[in-house]
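pasting for ref
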Amino acid sequence: MEEIKGASKNFEIVELEKKIRTEEGKGDFLVEFLKQGELGRGGKKISHIYVATMSRGVVRGNHYHKKKTEWFSIFNGMVKVATENIRTKKRDDFILDSSGKSLKRVRINTGVAHAFKNISNSNVVLVAYSSKVYDSKKPDTYEYKLL
């Protein structure tokens, strides 16, 4: 399976620059994950950012949303990503790998099922932004098995 570059109607991938940190004690790199102007029309406000870790072989997702769009990136390790438009059944599978000179940010649109599987030998750190704040009483999360 090759890494997919660009976009389809299911998702969009944007390259994120790793800014190498040279000051001692500041870490290896800094990545600007998402900026206000990248949220689309209307000057949307930041609503929900979260970080998740995934052990080797763990799958997260296997669901879709009717009302929210999500942006994802990984900052350690490698994941297999599967997406499928629930109406058209168009499916895409690709790899996100954090070991290169840059990272990728993936936008998953509404109505697109998505799943991430850690295929690396180490834990994966996944950072995500959701266009809607999570509401446990109305989660807008619908199970859809991909991986």
